[in-house]
């Protein structure tokens, strides 16, 4: 093997091992909102900075993310593909935060449940118990012990700081012939991010979440 090829092989192996040792199955990868996306702006105006969350699975030297997204519904994809989908219109990656359950002994079973839901539709109605899922709802449904969700449901809020509704929400629910489900019990990424069940996983020196 020529030296340049050997160098890139070793470098690739190092990156792969770095990812494997940094991420753990059952970790939650939270995404901060971008000012360039209408849905991101509506979510930030209603609930806070975190606009999306995905579930991490580590298999061998590969890292996957299971998430519920408007474009794909519930799917499992390589970490790189997940990160690519989070970029804004100018190709910039938003801030990411890796969180881990303080007690993650059952993480594999939570992830297995999430994988079993791959193929389900995205829940544009943001309503419970309809076999469709939005991002934090997927986590809420899959992370359960003895039939009880780990993360507490909270009243849904679609109002902005001024007490009105962002035009994005108005159009979304009018299109579905629905009343905005203000106050219905549900979840959101920002509230989940702040849960005391989770701890923040700091990037190691010299690494980032997308290394």
Give the name of the CATH architecture. Alpha-Beta Complex
Question: How many strands?
Answer: 10
Secondary-structure-derived class:
alpha+beta
CATH class: Alpha Beta
Shape: globular
Which tags fit this structure?
two-stranded antiparallel sheet, 10 strands, six-stranded antiparallel β-sheet, endopeptidase fold (from Nostoc punctiforme), 211 residues, alpha+beta, 7 helices
Structure overview:
The chain has helices at residues 3-22, 38-46, 79-86, 107-116, 135-142, 167-175, 189-193, and strands at 28-32, 50-59, 62-69, 73-78, 96-101, 144-145, 148-149, 154-155, 185-186, 198-200. It is of the alpha+beta class and 211 residues long. The strands form three sheets. The chain has a six-stranded antiparallel β-sheet with strand order 4-3-2-1-5-10, with helices on both faces. A two-stranded antiparallel sheet has the order 6-7. Strands 8-9 form a two-stranded antiparallel ribbon. The protein is built from seven helices and ten strands. Mean pLDDT is 90; it is low at 5-17. It is globular and about 45 Å long. Strand 2 (50-59) and strand 3 (62-69) form a beta hairpin. Helix 4 crosses helix 5. The chain has one domain (22-200): Alpha-Beta Complex (endopeptidase fold (from Nostoc punctiforme)). 33% of the residues lie in helices and 22% in strands.
């Amino acid at each position: 093997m020529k030296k340049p090829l050997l160098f890139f092989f070793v470098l690739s192996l190092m990156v792969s091992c770095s990812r494997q040792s940094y991420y753990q199955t059952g970790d939650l990868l939270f995404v901060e909102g971008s000012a360039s996306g209408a849905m991101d702006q509506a979510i930030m105006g209603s609930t806070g900075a975190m606009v999306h969350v995905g579930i991490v699975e580590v298999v061998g030297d590969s890292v996957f993310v299971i998430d519920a997204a408007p474009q794909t519904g519930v799917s499992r994809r390589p970490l790189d593909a997940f990160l690519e989908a989070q970029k804004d219109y100018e190709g910039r990656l938003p801030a990411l935060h890796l969180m881990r359950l303080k007690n993650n002994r059952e993480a594999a079973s939570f992830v297995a449940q999430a994988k079993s839901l791959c193929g389900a539709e995205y829940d544009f109605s943001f309503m419970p118990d309809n076999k469709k899922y939005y991002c934090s709802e997927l986590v809420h449904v899959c992370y359960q012990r003895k039939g009880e969700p780990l993360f507490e449901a909270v009243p849904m809020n679609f109002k902005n700081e001024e007490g009105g509704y962002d035009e994005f929400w108005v159009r979304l629910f009018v299109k579905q012939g629905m009343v905005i489900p203000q106050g219905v019990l549900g979840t959101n990424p920002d509230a989940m991010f702040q849960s005391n069940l989770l701890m923040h996983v700091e990037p190691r020196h010299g690494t980032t979440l997308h290394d």
